[in-house]
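Hello forum,

I keep getting stuck at the same step: I have a sequence, I want structure tokens, and every attempt I make locally crashes halfway through. Rather than fight my setup again tonight, could one of you with a working pipeline run this one for me? It's a single chain of 469 residues.
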Amino acid sequence: MSARILVVDDVIPNVKILEAKLSVEYYDVVTASNGPDALKIALEEQPDLILLDVMMPQMDGFEVCQRLKADKLTAHIPVVMVTALSEAADRVQGLESGADDFLTKPVDDLALFARVKSLLRLKMMMDEFRLREETSSEMGVISMSDRKEEAIQRARILVIDDNEYSVRMMKEIYAETYDITLEPNMEEAQVLLRGGDYDLAVISLDSATHDPLRLCSKIRSLEETRQLPILTLVDDSDKDKLIKGMDIGINDYVMRPIDANELIVRTRTQILRKQYQDRLRHNFHRSMELAVTDSLTGLYNRRYMSNHLDAMLQRAKLDYKPVCALIMDIDFFKRVNDAHGHDVGDDVIKEFSNRIGTSVRGIDLACRYGGEEFVVIMPDTDLSVAASVSERLRRQIAEKPVSVRKGSLDLELTCSIGVTVSKKGEESDSLLKRADEALYKAKRDGRNRVVVSPPSIDLFESQPGVAAR
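Reply #2:
Ran it on my machine without issues. Output:
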């Protein structure tokens, strides 16, 4: 994948070396030689990744990283610290300042490109969800006013390790903050992962009986666990496994011997990231739901109904199964608004939509067509069945008053319904037009009735009731 990478280092040869390595892999590279320039370029160029030196004059890499993460316009950009510092305390300080990872000089090419690819994949996915969230916010579908991110308390962690010492150590480290499950057997771990809602999997790459990378691959291939962060525990002799694991989709790693502070910080980083990712995904699905539903009634809206009906009729062309359409309208609804106000009118519409929902089948599609008009689409349904459902709905409205204002006001209402069935090869506009014409006939003939068009079935005629047009 191609991407733009910002390389920040005050030593020009270091910059040139990284620039050459990345350019060979077809990355677009921009450079900065100090912290202030790096902040300016990051804001203007919006790179996909930043390789940041720690030891620089004016402003060190820790401060640069903190400022990048504090600015909402650059906070989403992954930062990898590239430094000669190799102490665990330095890595912890970098991670606490917001860095996504550390690379120690001289930089190993395999580790560099594995880390770059992993972080770029993650950023690409997160950018897509952020864009969808921003679009939904601009459309007024969701609110982005509350974006404070806090650590998930009692997040669930599955530790998969058969090393008794490290298991005991992690149990002590995690016990106060997280719910931890310990499982030495990787086959059993797969069962737990598929059945449990975990926030992080901690997997040792050192196992004498199982292939940990196979488990990592399995996690990434299953729908239930595809987004689960993976933190691996790595011996110095397992670097080849680590590189392969990064390619598979490992999110982060801690080298043995395990430093407790580093493990804590890296764990918290992964859980915070999952929280953010889950929120973006939730907002996306919520925005999709809100985009196709009516905010007052919770029924599908007209746009969704039109698209769904088109798809139904296309399928009907193949299997010749009829599709029925009901259009209904609350009789004299304007009088309700004029006499009692729009708040009562809204309550009436909500109650009307509730009664529609209890009267139609699960496979039927109910939507608010606009104002006090509603549509029900009934796939694979004969006209006689649709007429019977319509008559049942008409009776439910007419026979039971609508209670509003917390039960202090009961309104007696009726509705008119037009019903029709699709013809072979018919388009949605034509079907809805015929149902609408039947509705208007019901209103002209006195309201509180069902009119069926065309009169192709043997229907009874009542006053009020079902009438064949």
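The radius of gyration is 31 Å. If your local run keeps crashing, start a new thread with the error log.
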